[in-house]
Design a protein that fits this description.
The protein has 422 residues and is an alpha+beta fold. 32% of the residues lie in helices and 18% in strands. β10 and β11 form a beta hairpin. The protein starts with a strand and ends with a helix.
């Protein structure tokens, strides 16, 4: 039996100090036929100090010394999978450390640095926290960063060698597309460029759609646009960072106790990928009704624009220390499918229903904080009208007329199909 373990450190939400919150252990049999098992245990020192923060209120909610088994990700605890790299970071780590495409999730976790991790957690081999400092490039490096990310996505040699080295050490940002973080004063931005294989200007489309949702009163992450000659990138403000303080976050996948990417095929779907189930779980941990209504609004927005990449890892909660409660994070990674009009979303709109339809959208209204179905209809009617009005400004945000018209016509078509009554 091979045993590996790391200490898990947390930046305290109240004063910014780093503390050891627990320890993760992975047991791997030396033969491939054995069972891989992982577990997390809160540190006695963390419990004795009476710290109130459960780093995962769904899967690690009870603050005691009982070890928590890790039933998903081949033994990696959900909240640690949240701070590990996704497809883009894994690709780079495979190149940098000669990792197999089938390497255990733990290998990706320990080979990525703490500087760029999502949320307020870090890992270390020592019991005492010894986290690396935030090493994100400053904003003047933005143009070079966009160029270097494009070169990396095309598997081309580095033009900015030192920047490439730095980017290779900050791999924990999620998603399949190239991205990196820059710091501008006390604000952190996630930089996501359009790449050579894109048939459309995806960065610009994301920027315009995020702006459209924000104008329609949805709580979207703040965005900015970078354009330099033929290079375009969308900048998305990181809601898990403010100056040197990192905020606790948890993905929708962890909340729903599901894996992303799913083990099941797309055609089989995953029963836990569900907006109503997510709303129910959020209510159980004290997320207010206004956020559940916001979640319904995002589901409606995704249906209208055709964003079928609304999988569980594209939803999250963030800890509010001032309110001492978890809140739904700002929306992020909201990008419509521009190649074809989706008939389904990745997440269920109601139990067993992935289809974009009136019945699927409104059947489980009671889980989203509304007083009754009429109140749900009223909310939806006004949000749809606001989204339609906002879509008329897509060209003002720089979107090509043909792309703007495609999105507008799709919104009109789906809105007519849904047709919520007052």
């Amino acid at each position: 039996m091979t045993t590996s373990s790391v200490y898990v450190h947390l930046q305290r939400p109240d004063n910014g100090e780093w503390v050891t919150v627990g320890r993760y252990t992975l047991n791997r049999p030396e033969t491939n036929n054995g069972i891989v098992a992982g577990s997390f245990k809160y540190a006695p020192s963390y419990l004795e100090a009476d710290h109130p923060w459960a780093i995962d209120p769904i899967n690690l909610g009870k603050l005691d010394t009982t070890p928590y088994a890790a039933p998903r990700y081949n033994g990696l605890t959900d909240v640690l999978r949240d701070i590990a790299p996704d497809a883009w970071g894994k690709f780079l780590l495979q190149k940098e450390h000669n990792l197999s495409a089938n390497a255990h999730e733990f290998e990706y976790l320990i080979n990525s640095g703490n500087a760029d991790r999502w949320g307020a957690l870090a890992i270390g081999l020592n019991k005492k926290p010894s986290t690396s400092t935030i090493a994100s490039p400053k904003m003047p490096k933005l143009a070079d960063m966009v160029e270097e990310l494009q070169l990396m996505s095309s598997r081309q040699p580095a033009k900015h060698v030192e920047l490439r080295k730095r980017l290779m050490k900050t791999l924990s940002s999620g998603g399949a597309r190239p991205k990196a973080t820059v710091r501008d004063g006390n604000v952190f931005w996630l930089v996501k460029p359009t790449i050579n294989t894109d048939t459309r200007n995806i960065a610009l489309i994301e920027y315009a759609c995020m702006r459209m949702g924000s104008r329609a009163t949805l709580n979207m992450a703040e965005t900015a646009l970078h354009q330099d000659h033929a290079r375009t990138a969308v900048l998305v403000k990181r809601f898990d960072r403010a100056d040197d303080q990192r905020h606790m976050v948890l993905s929708g996948a962890s909340i729903l106790k599901t894996e992303y990417p799913a083990k099941l095929s797309v055609n089989q779907n995953n029963a836990n990928w569900s907006y109503p189930l997510l709303a129910q779980s959020l209510r159980l941990i004290g997320v207010p009704d206004v956020d559940l209504m916001e979640l319904f609004g995002r589901m409606l927005f995704n249906a209208l624009i055709g964003n079928d990449d609304d999988h569980p890892r594209n939803h999250a909660i963030v800890w509010s220390q001032s309110e001492k409660k978890w809140r739904l994070s700002p929306a992020f990674d909201v990008v419509p499918n521009m190649e074809e009009t989706p008939r389904n979303l990745s997440m269920q709109l109601s139990q067993g229903r992935w289809d974009i339809s009136y019945d699927a959208l409104f059947y489980d209204w009671k889980y989203f904080g509304f007083a009754n179905k009429a109140a749900t209809h009223h909310y939806a009617k006004h949000l749809i009208a606001a989204i339609i009005d906002s879509s008329n400004l897509l060209e003002r945000d720089g979107l090509l007329a043909e792309d703007a018209e495609l999105i507008r016509s799709r919104i009109q078509s789906v809105a007519h199909q849904l047709n919520p009554q007052a």
